[in-house]
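Lecture 7 notes: from sequence to structure.

We start with a single chain of 165 residues. Read the sequence below before looking at the structure.
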Amino acid sequence: MDKLTPPAAGFALPAAGGAYALTVDLSAALPLRLGRRPPVVLPAGRYVYCGSAYGPGGLRARVGRHLRRGKPVRWHVDRLTAAGRVVEVLVRPDGDECGLFAALAACPGAVVPLPGFGSSDCRRCPAHLLRLPPDFSVGNGTAGQAYMAGEVAAAGHREGNIAAS
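Now the structure, written as tokens:
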């Protein structure tokens, strides 16, 4: 895919399982404490988090949860989405989060900012979070369907109904 696709009328994220990537912009540094590790700080910038959604509601429910404000902190990425702004969503129905991470990690300028972030249950990846250049877009050449996060939220995707991020 070459560019972001605006959702068409009647747009719906698939309820099927798959992999997704969230592009999150942090306007300020984010202090984090993950588990028993020493505190760290993610600098302001553009980040991409890769995850999977094979539970009830699939991609629709999981991406919807990530776009919702005021949710309980359950996963590492919840700290990032609470402090930042999700600007893009890429979905790969039936996809694999590790394969998606590997493809994005090969992009110029991609670095793992915090080993283990979002990948505590993964033995293949150093993390499921990447820091990328400020002009990076998951819609440029990454296999999958990418959307602007605001348009996904405006199309009514939430667990119940998402508030725009």
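Residues 58-67 form the longest helix (10 residues). Keep this in mind for problem set 3.
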